[in-house]
Each structure stands twice: as C-alpha cells, then as structure tokens.
Amino acid sequence: MSGGLLNSSRKISALLLDITGVLYNSGEGGGHVIPGSPQAVARLKEAGYKLKFCTNETQITRRALVEKLTRHGFTLTEEEVYSPAPACVQYLLENNLRPFLLIHPDARQDYVTVDTTNPNAVVLGDAAHEFTYDNMNIAFKILISQGSPGHLISLGRGRYYREGSELTLDVGPFTKALEFASGTEATVIGKPAPSFFKSALSDLRVPPEEAVMIGDDVLNDVGGAQGCGMAGVLVKTGKYRPEDERHPTVKPDRVVDNLAHAVDLLLNVS
Amino acid sequence: MSGGLLNSSRKISALLLDITGVLYNSGEGGGHVIPGSPQAVARLKEAGYKLKFCTNETQITRRALVEKLTRHGFTLTEEEVYSPAPACVQYLLENNLRPFLLIHPDARQDYVTVDTTNPNAVVLGDAAHEFTYDNMNIAFKILISQGSPGHLISLGRGRYYREGSELTLDVGPFTKALEFASGTEATVIGKPAPSFFKSALSDLRVPPEEAVMIGDDVLNDVGGAQGCGMAGVLVKTGKYRPEDERHPTVKPDRVVDNLAHAVDLLLNVS
Predict the structure, then answer these.
(1) Which residue of B has its CA nearest to A128?
(2) pTM for the model
(3) How buried is residue B249: exposed, middle or buried, by Cβ count under 10 Å (0-12/13-18/19+)?
C-alpha cells in the first residue's frame, strides 16, 4: 500500500471493510450512505483488490443486508459479506447446542437449521429492544442451570454504534451483564475474535501482512485486526470519537477522514 | 458470641441482618416469611443485642419495607433499617448531581428532594422491568455526554436474588453493562461498599470486631462485612446455593441453616 497510508514497502492485496459506520450509517428507513463510499468500493474492485465486508451486524440476515447496501449504491455479493451468523450456526451444530436466541427478530431466519427446544445455551446478538428484563432473566436462568461454566455465545463484543445521530448500545454491554450475573465467560463469534478475522482472510487466501482492515471501531476493528498481524485503519465516520485516537491500548496504523480518503491514499491519487 | 458460632473469646454486641433471603423471600403478594425468623429477631432484641437491618433493597421505600415486614410478624422500626436510598440522596445533594433515576417506580418517593431535570448523573437501583433497552440507552448517553468519567451511582452490586422460587437479576449486571459501554466505574452505595457497613456500625456505636453480619449473599454480605473487620455468617436460605461455600475468595466464618439456627448458636441453646 503506497501513498503514505502505510509502510510503502508493504504489499497490500486485500481489504477487510467494516460495513456500519464505513459504508453507511444505520438509522430510520435503512440509514444513510456515507458520501463517497460506494465509489470507493467500486474503485477498489477495479484496481483488483480482494475484498471482504467484515461486519458484526446481527440485526438482519446477510441477504437482507446485501439488498440494503445494493439500494445504497454498493456493488457486492452475499459471498463477500463475512458476518457472525454462519460461523455461529456451525459452532452450535458442532457442539450440540440448543440456544435461546436473544437476537434481533429480523435475524432469526439465519438460524432456521438450529434446534432451539429445551435450550442449553444462549446466543446474544444485537437484539436492541429484545433486551428486556424478562429476556435477560431467561438467558441468565439457562446459564446458571447448566452448571459451571454455562454456554454463552456473543456475536461480537461492541460497546455501541451510531444509529442516526445518536450512539446506541451494542451487544457487548449485555454480554458483560450476563457474564457477571452467571459467572460465565462468553465465547465471542465476530470481531474482535482472532478466529473471525483469520477465517475471512483464509476465504480470500491472503496472509495477514498483505491485508488491511478499515473500520470505525478502534478496539474491535483496528485492535482486533492488528492482533492478527493485519494493519488497522480507523475512519472518522460512524461511531468515531476524537478520544478514539488516544485509546490506551490500540494505536491505528492510520486515521483517515472516511473510506474514500483511505482509497485515495491507497491508490496514490491524493 | 458463644455456642461455637464464632471464636468464643469474641464479645458480640451487635448484629447486622440482611433482609431479603434472611427475614423473608420476595415474591408475589409481598413474599413469604422464612420460618422462625420473626421469633429469632424477637429473641435477639430480648437478649439485648443491638440490631441493624442492612439491605440493598431498592424496590420500595424504607417505610413500605417496614410495613411489609411488620405484616410478616417482625417487630422493627424505620430507624433500624439501613438501606442505600438515604445515603444516595445525601451523596447526590453534596455533589450537586441531578440524576436520571433508573430505579423501581415504587422507590421513587425516597428521592423527592432531588432535582432530576437535565440529568448529569445516573442512579441505578433494582429497577427490574424498568431495565429496558430504551432506559439503558438514556443512561448510557448521559454517561458519555459528561466527559470522562461520567457519574454512575449503583445501589449495591448484587448479581441476583431469589424471587418466589426463581433467581432473578439484581442491579449489578446492569451496572456492569453501563460501566463497560461508557468506560465509567460506578460508585457503589450499599453492600458491599465498606462505607455502607461502617456507617451502619457508626450509627450503633459498635466497633466491627463486636459485630456479626448475617446474610444470604456470600460476596456482598459475608465478604463485604469481613472486609470491614466484622464476622460474616452465611445462611442457607434465600439465594444461597451450595457452591457459595466454595467461593474462590470469601470464606464465611460460619454457615448456618437459617437465621433461627444462627440465633440458637449465638444464645447457646442448641
């Protein structure tokens, strides 16, 4: 990657792009595209870069997400989207787990192959208004009835994201709540779990040193990618806040205004 | 305290008694008295022990709690009940804090002297069904809008308690959720905060080495009291579970069947 974005001696062949906060901001009526991002994605494809859209989005199915992004002017396929749901379904089946799905109603379709009777595990996604006291208690009782440790699976560990003009709570805080209540440590499927990034790179057949992750979450996107040997670039869109640049443990390889800016630097046109 | 309950060379002059899980179990219709507990309290009073009922109960006002316990056959006054609400009100007034009160509706009366307009702080109590996604988001936004650190006050830090035949989530998990989301550490008012136990003892004018705490929460009752130099006795009623006796950091000075058993041992009649 040249243009000063990263060490110019580094050959970059693939980009992992976060979706929410990088391509578009979620909100009423499907959200709002981030200016320049559809064109930036198209330019990357034209230039021959391999792409994976790595998201912790768990409020809708992968298919519905691709349809929404297509309406926003992006060109992408379901296969290019890497999200926690398929990995979670595989994990549940392999471990004979019957989950209580505390997830968004619009995401349930991704789990139709999973037995949810007589639950012996809990899956937490970005359930939003499904995070009621009653649902949290159901999850808690399953976890403490399974002995120690109960089986808690969290689709990501994000603290919050931007919804319209406001920050809103993500799945992470509710995972913390259930971990504390039940004395269980969650298995994270999604960013920042190293296995999530590594699987995405494996699909692309690209080693981490040839890949860059671009995201708006300093800890889960940038820190997670760096922990796997990738470069991590922070955009100033989405949930970005200036204090993210003074994060106590994560230092982005580069901070850019937005995805278009990152692509300008990468293609050396700025 | 003789009778083998504790080291017999120790002079005991005061008892701090937890309420929920020791005197009665909460549940539908005011809950159920724990057999023998009203008589046990009466015997302690007859024997001249100083008593304080130390509770993290924040679902009702102190007055309503005393009325409920009186209906259950206990003899006690409001002054004998030590609960977080009065200490919290004092803390809010001293620090010029205008809280968003995420507390149980039945406890609001305790906070009528507090200004809640344009909130610059969050108070979390055992809000139960008030722990909605929307209310958690309101609290979160106040905490992150106040700079770092935001002002989060938690009335206790309990993980769960017994409600009828079921365990149900207490305030602690929701405090953890907001701490994680906002990067704020909560100020705890109530057990297991040392200041809470010390204030109760100060009211009684009894040094910690002459006092015993009796509760059903191994961490918040027993551990908290021991941390202040008191003895801590665990009852096998309320939320007690056998694994509490193998707690990694807290070893009760004694485990008893119930409050009546503790009083038998104390009065040396067993």
Answers:
(1) B133
(2) 0.86
(3) exposed
- The reported pLDDT for the residue numbered B3 is 45
d(CA B115, CA A210): 57
Give pLDDT, residue B74. Answer: 97
Q: Are A194 and A213 in contact (CB under 8 A)?
A: no
Q: Which CATH superfamily groups domain A86-188? A: HAD superfamily/HAD-like (3.40.50.1000)
pLDDT, tens digit (0-9, with 9 covering 90-100), for B51-85: 999 999 888 888 999 999 999 999 999 999 999 99
Start-end of CATH 3.40.50.1000 domains in chain B: 14-83+192-266, 85-188
pLDDT tens figures, B135-154: 999 999 999 986 666 899 99
Q: Determine the average pLDDT of the residues in A163-189.
A: 94
CB pairs under 8 A between A and B: 83
- CA B97 from centroid of its chain's CA atoms: 23
Phi-psi region of A260 (alpha: psi -120 to 50; beta: other; left: phi over 0): alpha
Share of chain A above pLDDT 70, in %: 95
Query: How far is A62 from A84, CA to CA, in rounded Å?
Result: 10
Please give the Cα distance from B26 to B6 (Å, whole number): 29
Asked if the model's pLDDT at residue A243 lies above 60, the reply is yes
Query: Do B63 and B199 form a contact (C-beta atoms < 8 A)?
Result: no
CB contact residues (below 8 A), chain B span 26-65, against chain A: none
Mean pLDDT over the full length of chain B: 92
Domain B85-188, CATH homologous superfamily name and number = HAD superfamily/HAD-like (3.40.50.1000)
Residue ranges of chain A assigned to CATH 3.40.50.1000: 14-83+192-266, 86-188
Confidence of residue A30 (pLDDT cuts 50, 70, 90): confident
Q: Which CATH number fits domain B14-83+192-266: 3.30.710.10, 3.40.50.1000, 3.40.50.1100, 3.40.50.2000?
A: 3.40.50.1000
Q: Which residues pair with B165 in a beta bridge?
A: none
Report, as an integer, the average pLDDT of A23-37.
91
Report whether A175 contacts A157 (CB < 8 A): yes
Nearest to A140 among B134, B160, B181 (CB): B160
The answer to whether the CB atoms of A176 and B172 lie below 8 A apart is no
The pair of structure tokens assigned to A65 is: 């997400």
Residue B188 pLDDT > 80: yes
Rounded to whole angstroms, the Cα distance separating B169 from A253 reads 42
